[in-house]
Amino acid sequence: MLKVVRNPFKKAEKGASLVEYALLVALIAVACIVAIRALGQRVSAQFSTITSALS
After folding, report:
1. Which PROSITE patterns does the UniProt record give (predicted)?
2. Which end of the chain is more exposed for a tag (fewer CB within 10 A), N or C?
3. In this structure, is residue 10 part of a structural domain?
4. What pTM value is reported for the model?
5. Range of the structural domain that residue 48 is part of
6. Is a pLDDT exceeding 80 seen at residue 12?
7. Alpha-carbon torsion, ordered 19, 20, 22, 26, to 10 deg
8. d(C-alpha 31, C-alpha 33), whole Å
9. Would you state the torsion angle of the CA atoms of residues 33, 38, 43, 45, taken in this order, to the nearest 10 degrees?
10. Number of separate domains in the chain
11. pLDDT tier at 13, thresholds 50, 70, 90
12. Dihedral, 8, 10, 13, 18 alpha carbons, nearest 10
């Protein structure tokens, strides 16, 4: 009979994918924060220009 060999590292792989997703989410969050900080002043200046033009 052919027996199926169980993989003892299956749980470890599941935990590793969780860590990979957490790192991916953290990287995306850092990229968003950097983009907001870089563009924040420009967007604020544009809104000020628009506000003064409408007044």
Report:
1. PROKAR_LIPOPROTEIN (PS51257)
2. N
3. no
4. 0.54
5. 23-55
6. no
7. 130
8. 5
9. 140
10. 1
11. low
12. -130
**Total residue length of the chain:** 55
| Residue 11 binned pLDDT confidence (cut-offs 50, 70, 90) | low
Res 37: pLDDT: 92
Residue 14 has pLDDT above 70, yes or no: no
Binning pLDDT at 50, 70 and 90, where does residue 55 land?
A: confident
d(CA 21, CA 16): 9
Alpha helices of 1-55 — where are they, by DSSP H?
A: 10-54
Evaluate whether residue 44 is within a structural domain: yes
Q: At residue 7, what are phi and psi to the nearest 5 degrees?
A: -90, 115
* Encoded amino acid at 44, one letter: S
What's the token pair of residue 55? 């007044």
